[in-house]
Amino acid sequence: MHIIKPILPFTLAFLAAILLLNFFYGRSVLSAPKAEELALGQDNTAYFAQDNGYNFHCGDFLYFPIPDCVQDFNTIESLEKQAYLLMGNSQLHGINQPELGLSSTSEILYSYFKERDSNKNFLTFSMPNMNMQEQFLLFEYAQMTLPLKKLLLAVSFDNTRETGIREGLLDALEEPEIKSNLKASESGQKILDLYGDTSIEDLDLPALKDTPQKSVEFWLNSRLSTFWNAWEARGSLRAISLIKLYQFRNYIFGIDSSSTRKKIPARYDANLLALKELLARAKALEIDVVLYSAPIRGDAKLPYDLKEYQDFKIDLQALTVEHDFTFVDLQQLVPAQYWGVVDSLNSTSGSTEIDFMHFQGFGHQILGDYLTELLTAEGWDR
């Protein structure tokens, strides 16, 4: 009895977890869209264009894997090939109202430069809410694996409110050269301190490292995933559950897509520092950079504190001037009629709200055309 009592709570919790996992698996939750597609809402679709099987637009290392783009690029047989790279958030792959036509900024840029010079291959890495710390890490990965010559960075005020490195980018930290490069900067060292020895299984529960619970987790992972599909897919279930909890929190506090999203000072500073160090690193490597502030819907009250938003763009301008790069503010580029709606942030009932981040295919055409003209003026086609 003295032995059974201490393990009884664990046993009951374990059985409850098994029942819940099987319940959700049986209800086909796992056949739903991937979590990063679910986050876009039913009025948007994730569009990662290809060229006859050639990957030029990828996500992270898990979904639409970045190594596919790198591998395909490396199949090009040319001593003069150059990689041009666009990095940004889901605005680059999210197409609002796809029934009106699929087109993406990445596809337009890729086609434009390929037609003019087959040695200039334009790639795109995009992820939901990609922050500047993640862009810094991906930049180091890209310059190590590709003959990177040009970098186009899309940044959004929303993404300064994010922090840290998501699990889908942890594979980049397995490269010794990347670790070595990151150690040379303050932001890079912080990334290594937090994630340098972290596996995907450790990411959500770093405090469990080297504890008995961690040993149990490892045993369960190694045993159950080999014969139980629901256990192997628990990460997807967890991501979907977090989205539902996010919606419930927003419902409780009355948050919707138009609610003012204030600056989070510590996160803002960490992201701006990472951006500054990315630009300094690019300068040292003689990689040209163009930075733009992402378009946002303009026919409704912006979901930002207007002074904070303006200060953000002033900060971006100052950083690019400091490193002799180019910055453009594209806030008002895409007219209101080419945007749409998104699933409500605080409801699971199917209601919708204004989408401030994702536009229709024709909006991508406008953005893509503008960027090709800008980059041509910058001499990127020479």
Explain what the structure shows.
By secondary structure, the chain is an alpha/beta fold. The protein has a domain at 34-170 and 260-377: Rossmann fold (3-Layer(aba) Sandwich), CATH 3.40.50. The chain contains 13 helices and 12 strands. It has helices at residues 4-26, 35-38, 66-74, 105-116, 132-145, 176-182, 186-195, 212-224, 229-232, 234-253, 265-284, 306-322, 361-377, and strands spanning 44-46, 50-51, 54-55, 57-58, 82-88, 94-96, 120-126, 148-155, 288-293, 326-329, 339-343, 352-359. Helix 5 packs across helix 6. The protein is globular and about 70 Å long. The N and C termini lie far apart (79 Å). The model is unreliable at 28-33 and 203-208 (pLDDT under 50).
Q: How would you concisely characterize the structure shown here?
A:
This protein is α/β, with parallel strands linked by helices and 382 residues long.
